[in-house]
Every structure is written in structure tokens, then in C-alpha cells.
């Protein structure tokens, strides 16, 4: 019996000795290489500096002679690359098509420790427009998910008529949790947002398998991303060790609850043209609860509901439907 216990202890010691270097190697595994398409996206973009931090952005010149500018605000946990399927279509309508990777996302810097906030992301958008010399131009905002919350803060500042803020011509939101009470975060988001001491461990243990299993369910059953598309998303997250700041970025969920009156109030009293493009199969912003509250809160807003199998990433799942809905809105005023 004593010998058996000793052998069992020795076995666990051997397992531990083997596991330690394997775990260490895993935690320091390099990020995946960029696909040719993602590499091209990065190469065609630029960086500007905001308070010592590098922010990646795209800025394409489209229709010559048009004064129209559209600024695209991406969602969590991905990047400006979310817009690539509708990018060319937008350049056929707008003179300037601009998108950025928010701080902590994509190819932008991902400082840690850092207090990530919606307020800072909004200030970065304002700084980018100043950097491009467009601070005095009227811009159209097109946003998705996390970007919807940033757009709400930009709208609040615009309504306050503060100098140096964006002048917003129109706003189009899409599948964002603008109402805390109808937002249904994923299990992994809940764990990372409220995990305390567990969060740093979870972020280090996150891998492509965990990421893809967590993200795929927010797409429709017929419009799920291919494995190569998921790898592009994961490569953007892993760039600059972005998986290690996901728990910090997710504090926006708590910020949204705390500042609900400020951000929902900015939408409710809006006077500019506003539109919402909605993938109705979205488990994060479920139908019909979300849409009923949206229409009640923003009766002046128009809404485009895409096909019933389109979910949380409408610009990727149904790019033509999304683009047609947006162009219909833009051409209506």
C-alpha cells in the first residue's frame, strides 16, 4: 500500500515535470502568420500616434468630387477588417472611406495594464479625424456592436456642441448592445468580464479552438465564417498579444450599464438621420425584445431587418444586403 502511494506520487511528479515546459511553451506560442488577404489589408493601411500609442487605420479615396465621408467603427473582439466585404461598395458612393482599429484591437497597440474605456476610444476617433484634417467636415458614422457604443458617445459629444468634436451628418448602427437590459453576452465574455483573478489565466489559456467555438454561434447557421476567415479574426486578436487584454476591453459592458442614461439619452433625443441594420437571428441582441425596445426608444429611426437567418455580423454574413440597406438609408436624405 505504501509502495503504491509512493508510485502514484512519483507518477504525478513526472506528469507535472512534463506539463510545466509544455504549458510554458504553449503560453508563449507565437501568433499565427497573417494570410495574404490580411497582410494586404495591413500593408494598405497606415498608423497615427495617439498619446504615444500607435493606432492603425484605413483611408481610401473613392468617388471624385463627392464631399461625402463615412467613418466605420468595428465591433468586439475583431477589427476594421470586418468591413472588407463592403469596402469597395462604399468607395463607389463616398469620397473618403475611413476605418480604424480601436486601441486594444487588430493592428493597433494593446497596452497592458491599461484602463480601456469607450470615452478613450471616442477620443481616438476624434484624434484620427484631426490627424486627417477632417475635423471640420460633416461625417457619416457606420458602426457595429462595440462600435455602436463608441458612436453613442460621439453623438453625445456632438449634441453638447463642444469644440473639437465631430460634426455628425448621419448615424447607422448595426447589431450592437446599445441597451444593457436586452444585451446577452456570451458565457466566455461573462467569465472574462467578472472573472477577477481568474481572468488573466483564462486570457492566457485562450486559443484558436476556444475562440472559434465561442464566436461561431453568433453567426447564422448558413453564414458562418470559414476556418480561414476565423484564423484571420484570431490573427488580429493575437497580434501584439491582444488575447491578454480581452478582459480589460470587456469592461465596456460595465461602462454601458453605468452610463446608460448618457448614451441611450443621446440616441433618444437625436435630430440627425439615424438608421439601424439588424440581423434578427442575433443571440446577443435577441429578436423581438431588442427591436421592440429600439423602436419604442427611437421612434424617428428607420430600421432595415435582413433575412431571418442573418445574425450578429450582418456586414460579413450578408454584405450585399447590408450594403443595399445602408445605401438606401444614405440616399433617403
UniProtKB/TrEMBL annotation:
The protein's location, in the record's own words, is: Endoplasmic reticulum membrane
Claim: Transmembrane is one of the keywords in the record: yes
**MF annotations from Gene Ontology:** hydrolase activity
Q: Which Gene Ontology cellular component terms are annotated?
A: endoplasmic reticulum membrane
Membrane topology per record? Multi-pass membrane protein
Source domain of life: Eukaryota
Q: Where are the transmembrane segments?
A: 12-29
Any matching Pfam family: Abhydrolase_1
Query: Is Phosphoprotein included in the keywords of this UniProt record?
Result: no
Task: Please report which protein family the annotation says this sequence is part of.
Answer: Belongs to the AB hydrolase superfamily.
| Protein name (Swiss-Prot/TrEMBL) | Mesoderm specific transcript
Which species is this UniProt entry from?
Canis lupus familiaris
Q: Which gene encodes it?
A: MEST
Amino acid at each position: 500500500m505504501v509502495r503504491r502511494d509512493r508510485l502514484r506520487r512519483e507518477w504525478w511528479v513526472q506528469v507535472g515535470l512534463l506539463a510545466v515546459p509544455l504549458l510554458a511553451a504553449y503560453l508563449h506560442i507565437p501568433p499565427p502568420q497573417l494570410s495574404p488577404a490580411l497582410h494586404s489589408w495591413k500593408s494598405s493601411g497606415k498608423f497615427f500616434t495617439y498619446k504615444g500609442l500607435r493606432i492603425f487605420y484605413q483611408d481610401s479615396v473613392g468617388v471624385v468630387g463627392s464631399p461625402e465621408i463615412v467613418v466605420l467603427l468595428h465591433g468586439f473582439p475583431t477589427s476594421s477588417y470586418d468591413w472588407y466585404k463592403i469596402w469597395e461598395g462604399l468607395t463607389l458612393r463616398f469620397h473618403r472611406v475611413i476605418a480604424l482599429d480601436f486601441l486594444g484591437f487588430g493592428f493597433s497597440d494593446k497596452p497592458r495594464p491599461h484602463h480601456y474605456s469607450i470615452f478613450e476610444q471616442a477620443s481616438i476617433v476624434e484624434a484620427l479625424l484631426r490627424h486627417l484634417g477632417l475635423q471640420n467636415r460633416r461625417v457619416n458614422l457606420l458602426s457595429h456592436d462595440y462600435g455602436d457604443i463608441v458612436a453613442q458617445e460621439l453623438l453625445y459629444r456632438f449634441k453638447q456642441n463642444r469644440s473639437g468634436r465631430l460634426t455628425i451628418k448621419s448615424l447607422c448602427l448595426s447589431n450592437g448592445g446599445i441597451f444593457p437590459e436586452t444585451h446577452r453576452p456570451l458565457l466566455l465574455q461573462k467569465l472574462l468580464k467578472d472573472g477577477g483573478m481568474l481572468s488573466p489565466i483564462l486570457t492566457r489559456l485562450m486559443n484558436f479552438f476556444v475562440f472559434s467555438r465561442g464566436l461561431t454561434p453568433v453567426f447564422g447557421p448558413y453564414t458562418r465564417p470559414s476556418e480561414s476567415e476565423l484564423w484571420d479574426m484570431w490573427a488580429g486578436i493575437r497580434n501584439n498579444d491582444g488575447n491578454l487584454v480581452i478582459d480589460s476591453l470587456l469592461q465596456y459592458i460595465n461602462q454601458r450599464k453605468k452610463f446608460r442614461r448618457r448614451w441611450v439619452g443621446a440616441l433618444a433625443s437625436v435630430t440627425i438621420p439615424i438608421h439601424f441594420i439588424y440581423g434578427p437571428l442575433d443571440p446577443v441582441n435577441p429578436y423581438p425584445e431588442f427591436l421592440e425596445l429600439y423602436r419604442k426608444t427611437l421612434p424617428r429611426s428607420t430600421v432595415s431587418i435582413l433575412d431571418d437567418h442573418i445574425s450578429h455580423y450582418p456586414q460579413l454574413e450578408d454584405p450585399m444586403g447590408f450594403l443595399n440597406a445602408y445605401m438606401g438609408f444614405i440616399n433617403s436624405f
